[in-house]
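Q: May I have one protein plus its fold?
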Amino acid sequence: MRARRTLSHATIMALMLLASAARSADHRPPAATTAPAATTAPPAAAPQAPPGEGGELQPVVHAERAGITTCLDTIARQSAAAIDGPHAAVSSWTSTAPNQNLFVSVVGLSHPGPLAPNAGAIIVAAPLGAGRCAGTVVKIIPSARSCSAIQATLVGSGKTIAILQGLPVVDTKSGVRNLLLPTAGGGCTLVAIAVQE
């Protein structure tokens, strides 16, 4: 009897994002690697490192190992902004031209306390040419707190700019856009988006 593998919703979404990023990087498949019987190889991926290894930010370590220079400063800033504790990451890039294509890192985060013990972050950096880079960080924080309580806290340093199909969007003074998604049981998932150049 074969064991059945199941993937979590977060894993499926991360795989879809990575596949989409690889396809849209330059509209050609990445260079083939040593993977047997594959017609196109996926983007290079860094293996998941043990959490807290040396206190270094794993997306930055992955970018350095990939030979990324154009977006390294952006990736370092994004990682420092998104990662605030123990974490583990898996990253992908186009190994044949890492400085001309998208870099994506999916990060799992751990936080002390029962209200939001785990979170995730997606770090995306893309070269714009002439040594410039743009990036975005999407941080996903599930919480036991209600969306109305989180919205009230966020409005203290920003304002509600829209209600999208019943979902509040709050911009903070720091430039972060926050989407609040109610969860079953009265909790809330905060999706925080920050764009950097």
About this structure: The chain is about 25% helix and 35% strand. Residues 1-42, 45-53 have pLDDT under 50 and may be disordered.
